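User: Can you help me understand a structure? I only have the sequence.
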Amino acid sequence: MNVRPSIHLVCLTSATVCLICLTLGCATDQNPARADVQSIAQSREAQNGAKAFQKFLSASDVIISQDPVIRDRVMRVFVRIVQAAKASSSYGTVASPLQWEHVVIRDDLKVTGFAFPGGKIGLYTGLISAADTDDQLAGAIGHLVAKVLTRHSAERISRNFVRAAGEGSGFGLRVKPPKGEELEKFWQTTQRDEADYVGMLLSAEARYDPHGSLALYKSLEGPASPRAKKLEEHLPEAMARYHAQQKATAPLHSR
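Assistant: Let's start by predicting it. Here is the structure, written out as tokens:
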């Protein structure tokens, strides 16, 4: 019996890490309120992220894959995505100072990935196997890189602080905040959509066909899933960037 693996981003309630289970997704900074919660210095985030990343890797149940074929494949795609991020007009200033690292964890049952602040990402072998092509793998890696660039872990920490302040006596918010579950669901959906969108654009700018991102999500969540439909809306913009990159890097005699 074939069972469609579910992808979920696992968020740990820690000030240093947000493990992102690939319910792979995220939207642009169209909501001005989001800027207000991005208040943690990036350098401090990177330091905390690096420490948390090493602590995670030292756990006894974490087994790093030594398969050279898998490692080379991930490295090839990862390098191009990070290069695109550093060259991005929107995220280059965020991406360039980071010490980017990636790791492949051996677990074929986990169709997911994770990201730590500061440019540390990881993928489980189950996710890599689910990506039939490098274009699809680029969609997954692009999503995780986008989670770092859009600083979702910093937002989570700041939101928790604001919520705590609002619940205190005599301090904090002057208006009654939305219910915690509703607010958290809103932020999770916003961040998921943003990472999907930014990740697809990064993959396109790294010269990977954005149809791969869409194909990955359709295969994992179903062709009619809300997530796949939203990504389909962004496909024309991503394809325009993909074609522009293809043209810019094509040999002169082929133009």
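Now, to help you interpret it: The chain has ten helices and three strands. The chain has one domain: 33-248. Let me know which part you'd like to focus on.
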